[in-house]
Amino acid sequence: MTQWINNTVNFLSFMGFLLLIATMLVIDSESMNGIVVAKRFWFYTFMCITGVISIILAFYRKSTTRVDEIKTIIIGILTVVIIGISRNSNQEMMNAEVFLLIVISYFFFDIYFSYNKKSIKTFQFVLIALALFEVIWGYCQLYAYIPEMQTKFQLSGSFDTRYAYAVYLASITPIALYWTITLYQRLSAKFSTPSYTEQAKPEIIDEIMLFVLSALSLLGILSIMPFTGEAIAWLTAACGCCVVLYFKFNMHAFIKRLQTQKQRITLLISVLLISTGIVGGYYKFRKDPVDENLLAWKISMNVLTENPLFGIGIGNFQKAYGDAQSYYFEHGNRTERELALANTPCYPVSDLVRITAETGLLGLLLILGFVATILIKSIRSLKRYPEKLATLGALISLSMAGLMSSPIRSLPLAIILMLLLALCAPREARQEKAGLSFKVIYLALAGLVFFTAFPEMRKYNSYRAWAEGKLYYNMKIYATAVNIYAPLAKNLRHPGFLIEYGQALSQTDRYEDSIAVLREVLQSVSAPVIYNIIGKNYQAMGEYKLAEQNFRKAHYMTPSLVYPNYLLANLYHEMGLHDKTLQCARQVITQKPKKESKETQEMKAQMESLIKSIH
């Protein structure tokens, strides 16, 4: 009976956590924002389920985990996150709530792997199998074998962006590399020994199957990565693979065998020259993207100085960054190249920057201490648990991506990050029954998950209704869209929804209502499109000064956009200010947008006609 209970608990807990990781595979074309919202609701559901599983494991007599320094640090992180969320406005900040649940998921993963240490290796092969599945999915997209799933006509697998797809594959590359090498070595040793018995054949067959899975996944990743066009994925994958190869082949011993100082200096200079050549070559061929990131870093430093100790609050980075960029281009010492390179403020240039800005130095130190502690303990335990090298390389790959870009804005990548941290965390060898305080912690965490997730899960029908209203919005039947959006606005506070609602109100001549809705959005999001709509509302109401302020705000926020200057030219023409009209019209004509389009060509043609009519 006891064995039956153990098997049942093992199976149910394994399936619960497997389905949580399967968030990355979820798609739902009927839900608003397509894949993104569907993944979130799946994540909410299985966070609640794994919360129940974690409570069962915490009270189960074989639970061996305990509160250690790592959990103490992450409890501190949870405290900072909760305080940061409480400082937000009343805007619906999905990212803040998901961030909280992601942090809690570490505890759930940790207690599961402490209860079932054999699953650590199993989940490594789960990640490898998912990577191979994503490779197959990607090739099907490339060759249009599943056109009903290919709505964006880009290589993204089951992810919402090509970037997230590439970073996931890059993160799994070190795991696939480690097991391909390890299993090849094991099989070579066994087949070279003719004395292996018949009883060993089942084990050999299992290892052959796992070797084939790892090798196919590795080859598939390397073959499809060039099609993603994401250079950062190659760089992060290389970092993780280098760590795997360094420890796997004991390169440290090779370096120690270099007897003379000349040999060591030669090796160091060679490494530096190769690294410099790679960086220089990358900058030469990717000059514009690199300069865009450098500009984003420059502006992000202004955000970091707003409240360096306690941060600006979870979920507020986008607004703060947009305002900082607008102020910089209006009052700063900007260059012509910076004006041309500026992007619409959407995502942080780095997860490190966003975490520092939103949680302050305290949050940054806690998170860095958490990751560093796990990395150090993982390296120290490699001799005892060599299979941890695979997840160590994957964690380094994903961490490097977080330093140079923002992978955790993708929900699946955030889940994978927590999974890798839990896989790398040290496990106590001794059997120790969980104490009462530990059980209380898991009860509190599960309660927090239910308190956070259930209100969001009740909004699913609202998102479905948003999707239906968006059909009319896209067809520019704004009156019908307003009728559908109006009742949803009471409980659906997503910025994207409110922007559409504000635009629909503006198109139906309800200018004051539109301004009120869009002002709500500006509490948490700062984007040129919002200021453009508000400016057009004021222009229609005859409030020209306010319209001008909003158009200029949109222009300074993203100077590379043609549309704000186009709106200013039309505004000045309506006001009868011919000199300003000509100035803005000429700027539209001479401006080189980052990407030419039919719309920009039409705007330039209209400005040419406007100049001729004035002269």
From TrEMBL:
Residues passing through the membrane, by range: 9-29, 41-60, 72-88, 94-113, 125-145, 165-184, 204-225, 231-249, 265-285, 359-376, 388-405, 436-454
Keywords per UniProt: Membrane, TPR repeat, Transmembrane, Transmembrane helix
Matching InterPro entries: TPR-like_helical_dom_sf, TPR_rpt, WaaL-like
Pfam families reported for this sequence: TPR_8
Extent of the TPR repeats: 528-561
Superkingdom of origin organism: Bacteria
Classification via PROSITE patterns: TPR
Keyword Transmembrane listed: yes
Protein name: O-antigen ligase
